[in-house]
Amino acid sequence: MKYKSQKIAQDFYTFAVLLFFVQIAVGIIAAFQFIWPDFFILNFNTVRTLHINALVVWLLTGLMGATYFVVPEESQSELWSIPLARFQFWATVVAVTVVVVGYIWMGLNPQANKFVFGTTLLNEGREYIEAPRWADLLIALSVILFLFNNFMTMYKSRRWTGIQGTLLGGLTFLTLMYLPGMFYTKSMVKDQFWWWWVVHLWVEGSWEVIAGALLAFMLMKVTNAPRHVLERWMYIEVALVLFTGILGLGHHYYWIGTPRYWLWVGGIFSALEPIPLLLMVWDAFRVTREHRVVSNRLGLFYAVAHAIFNFVGAGLWGVIHTLPMVNKWTHGTQITTAHGHLAFYGAYVLLVVSMIYITLPLIRGATEFNTSRGYRSFWWMTISMIFIVLTITGAGMVQTYMERLLGLDYVTVKANYNLWFWVFRAIFGFGFLYGVFLFVVDFFKLGKEPVEVPVKVASETTT
Amino acid sequence: MSNKGVRNLFIFGSLFFFVILLGLTFDTMSRIDKRAPEITEEVDQGKRLWHKYDCIGCHTILGNGSYFAPDLTKTTANKPVSYIKKFLVNPRKVNPRASMPVLGITEEEAEKIVAFLDWISKVDTNGWPPEPVLAAVPQAMAGGAAVYQKYDCSACHMIGGVGGTSGPDLTHVASRQPDPEWHRRHLVDPASVVPDSAMPPFAHLSEEELNQLVDYLLTLK
């Protein structure tokens, strides 16, 4: 760590890592509710809200932490204001905690979600952006403070690098795209239209831009590859992300009451969306091949895995059901759930985890650290996730065939024909939870425990 | 191309595509209301209740949402409205196998939610959800089976694994209730033999249809 203000990243990481564990724990409860709906004191809707909101919040706080590390590094200066960053951190923690308490309260007493000033008090009742309007404003304020602090750091240093410029650009786009979720429309069609602006232009737009910038940063950090080459490919990748992703939004407008031309717009552009993700994989492989001196093998391992699973989860698992003639049958089935799980894991979970493994040793001043737990965590998480995704994909295929093609009842298919998929999914959920547990332990111990001496397997022969 | 060149391509190219998106959004906004019925005060209040009870936390609507419970886009087209209203207030009272909990929805609120669901069912969704193309084409059925089909009893009831789950499974109904008079009274006025029944009365069946349907139900042993 070159600048002491980068230490603030650690606070954000800590909060993110703990929420990650909570997210998976409630995810397992939700998985059990598929088998046994009355399994838990809270209904499924509350448990799922916690599962997906914890995901979004921990990824965002993780990305904030990463940004607080990257910007001083790239600007070659201290952060503009450490107290502001600290205030922003605690404000985020307090706001998130209050919102979560609100969700649980509503879960125990649905009538508590009253209308106040024309909007609901505890839960907006819109997927992913369930946080009530007052919390939206606090979240927006927190993000604006965060952006301002980083922008001032760059402005003061007058050192505009491509990586931090793209990172800040992605984060600004992210903030702006929160706004279309902050007004009420009487028409459910318009409601979903604007809601997709937020959800799609986040995960298939601004977040992928951030991922492109961070991938370039990580590859540069661990391999010492030349900046100008990395930045050129980064620009090409993020450009293609937005060229395909902005109008790829159309694949959400096939069947929600919007005009028919979206079938063409969405079909064409979303079919191209995997291309930039494949380019990122190629980029990661190229850098790794050309620069053999690696300073943090575990970090690079995670970064490359992120590129691969971003392509597989967001790219391949997305494109299989993105064309209108396929989507007509699969829309609203478990196929989407399978895609959602692998895409979030590959594109963003592994991104934040790899950023943590690359920056945390520097923050803690560890020149070397034990990597065994990190690798074990990776395999537990990744193998479990692959099986979770395969079980849900299987469930989605059965559902599409039996419900959409044969016309069987939704409840029958879910309760009878898909039962074993739910059971297997829950079992692999525990595997994933164990992987996360190893990661959380590793996060707290990294750089703080004695480093094991590497064991030589074969002694060199001397003649 | 220099790095500055690709950077500019990124920035101005992205702006170009964003401007196209804005144009399409503007156009779409001017067309959406024409593709759906008018939004009455009751429909709007129903939508607000949809949000209040976080229905999307379990259900999908227009195919988007939580995949835990049935999609509600075409609910009023597929189920009797009287059933939906009773179900919303106390799901397990009308369907003991239902997973949905009691949320405290009042009868008045249920009316509004149904108005909202009815509005949704009339939105032009470009043909989604599609008709099940592989569904068994009913053979030229005669007698009671044809009546069963004519009045779409399978929207709520199941026989041999085919049909809905809202009402009781009828695969072995004659073993449970062999009395033809009971069936006759039940069809004409369900609440007269099953208190709090959520099934709508089928008093509009002709005498012949009624006889055929009862005969058919009695074969299901």
Characterize the largest beta sheet of chain A: strand count, sense, and whether it forms a barrel. Answer: 2 strands, antiparallel
SS strand fraction of chain B:
under 5%
Helix share of residues of chain B? 40-55%
Q: Which sequence of SSEs, written as H and E, runs from N to C of chain A?
A: HHHEEHHHHHHHHHHHH
Mean pLDDT level of chain B? 94
Q: In angstroms, what separates the terminal alpha carbons of chain A?
A: 44 Å
Main interface by residue count: A-B, 77 and 74 residues
Spell out the helices and strands of chain B N to C. HHEEHHHHHEEHHHH
Over the alpha carbons, how many angstroms does the gyration radius of chain B reach? 24 Å
Structural class determined from secondary elements of chain A: mainly alpha
Task: List how many beta strands of chain A DSSP finds.
Answer: 2
Low-confidence stretches of chain A: none
Strand content of chain A: under 5%
Describe the overall structure.
The complex is a heterodimer of chains A (463) and B (221). With 463 residues, chain A is an all-alpha fold. Chain A has a domain at 1-160. Chain A has 15 helices and two strands. Chain A has helices spanning 8-35, 44-75, 82-108, 133-157, 162-176, 188-223, 227-248, 261-272, 274-290, 297-319, 324-330, 334-363, 372-405, 410-417, 419-445, and strands at residues 115-116, 119-120. In chain A, helix 12 packs antiparallel against helix 13 (372-405). Chain B is mainly alpha-helical. Chain B has three domains: 3-34; 36-121, Cytochrome Bc1 Complex, Chain D, domain 2 (Orthogonal Bundle), CATH 1.10.760.10; 143-218, Cytochrome Bc1 Complex, Chain D, domain 2 (Orthogonal Bundle). In chain B, 50% of the residues lie in helices and 4% in strands. Chain B is built from eleven helices and four strands. Chain B has a two-stranded antiparallel ribbon. In chain B, strands 3-4 form a two-stranded antiparallel sheet. The relative contact order of chain B is 0.10. At the A-B interface, helix 2, helix 6, helix 7, helix 8 and helix 12 of A face helix 1, helix 2, strand 1, strand 2 and helix 6 of B.
